[in-house]
Amino acid sequence: MNKTSTSYSLLDEKVRKWIWRQGWTSLKDIQENAIPLVLAGDRDVIISASTAGGKTEAAFLPILTSILRDPAPKGYQVLYVSPLKALINDQYKRLVNMTSGMDLSVTPWHGDIDFSRKKRSLKEPNGIIIITPESLESFFINKKEYVLSAFSSLKYVVIDELHSFIGTERGKQLQSLLCRLEQIVRRHIPRIAMSATFSDYDSVKQFLRNDGALPCAIPPQGDSNHEIKVLVKEYIRQKDKDVTASISEEIYTQLRGSNNLVFTNTRAEAEIYALRAIDLCAANGVPNEFRVHHGSLSKTERESVERDLQCGKYPVTAFCTSTMELGIDIGKVKSIAQIGTANSISGLRQRLGRSGRRNEPSTLRVFSIEDKNSGLLYDLHANLVQNIAVIELMREHRYEVPATGSYHLSTLIQQILAVIAQFGSFYPKEGWLLLCDKGAFKNISPELFLKVLRSLGANKVISQLNTGQIVIGEKGEELLKAPDFYVAFNSPVDLTVIDKSTSKRIGTIQFKPATNTVIILAGKRWMVDSWDEKVTTIYVSPIKHGGIAQFNGDGIDTDRLITLKMRDIYMSDTIYAYLDKRTKCSEALEDGRLFFQKNNVAKNSFIQYGNNIYFLTWAGSKVNRTISLIAEYRLGKSCPYGSFFVENITSQDIEKIKSADKPNGEELAKLKSRPVKITQKYDYLLSEDLLNQEYANSHLDIEMAWIVLTSLPEI
Fold it and tell me: Are 344 and 462 members of one domain?
């Protein structure tokens, strides 16, 4: 080990021996910089680096040192929260290896872990427990008599893949669980978060600990000279040209013989493209190397793909969705591909981080698709420009600011029920103090909290005793008994697909196909044979031809950062070396720029295209959704919107809007039907008033929309 490393000398001798056994000659920069901060034990630490950047060791080398030097007689000393069972299984193996010879137990704790193993751990809790938020919730409720003794000796809380939690219902649940835990043990426990890179850490710090009770440190990750190779190709979809076939053939030709991940924006696309590549293998008489991985496939199927990627015995290219973004151990991946338009900078960076391990370059191929019938979008080559924008922002290390301002009333409802289940009851003021004032829901006022309680009371979810205490109601008992209660996010009603010949579970779908219909799932075609309505099970048989892939799921909003970058690209003359010459990407970009210039878009925010007027805001999906609703509210007009435009709105319309008062978000939310506003698991229990407040808070941006509208020059 490099003798100039001061952090190495801070580590316990047993930890240093482990490093020596790994054959390391030096610590990585992120490890060197994180070790003293974590060892201090008096602050939160965000350890941010790319996938395979050494984050786990940066956290656990000092954590293990700390607990070896100050062992606790009883109780877990590290609570390690992970978003996925598969990640828990991976990290369990890594930590067992790291703790070999240290007399420290490592306990994985999730739904697939044997009950007897958990029971033994509870009798003598020790060392590290690795758990999901859902299992931690279950622990608090079903093992409540053990909570204090199990966690009273905690020295650290570790959160893996922090970015995957921020701005989500699951993330709000985790925040609440950690606040509840600290109130139980009556002290603040340092939180060590491992995450992908951010460009704005203020909101990340706020998410990690929203009361500022401990300072938060972010160790520098050091300079990276890691090589990134990028290639962008453009494909034009038109009536007589099958883009799917062309892209699948390109992937078949370029990626066979190595391990790769091909990301699509939907599960249906993953299935369709994979099946095309699999068909090409069959047609050419070569072994199939292509697989599918997404959330609707069975656990067995997903783990089979992960295992085959990891073992490296033969090449595997997996068509996947965001399920492969997180750091599941899949071994060495040569390249990443993105089919369609990249909608997230941080998401693409996370995907790219899955390749280029072991001192090899990270390789990204983007297959950009334009639809010749998409009018204005085609003339601007908007999808190509958006892909360039996301790549350039990623290269500049500029990422979306995480959304942390939503109320998350659905998760508040779940936490209200969880607290009652844990403690039996609470007085309204106690509940607000626990969950809001001193908890995760700090933007919930006492008045809003009481409104939520009244709405739950009206739905018989809770009841109030004569003493004033809140207890579980008739409907609440049903919710608590539901097997998915511990899950804060919305799970679609899935129909289980079973292979009739083997009784093997293939996965799930969200639509009911007719018998004798051919469906696509797990990269195979299946004929629907029969239904079992009682248990919502579909029995299928393999078939060679035909098939449709269909899944539910909404796209994500495009951030304003991306659309503003698109505008910059249109206005510049920069040539991007990674644009493919064979598909004439540079020429397509110049065509889009020429159209932009001919229509004077740089100076005029309005463009007449055919019979339609487009207001080019470059403001992102959320702001444009708000402007669209303002136009409907003030003018009674329907104004469709995209990520950088609002349709059917003129400069005269905007003058009329500006002459009136700035509208209230809840007034705009009333224009949406109730089913549209019910987006989270327990939203259906909210009153109309609460649902409007939640929708306005989560889906609209009144302030920025008004800035966009009022910043236009007077006509």
Answer: no
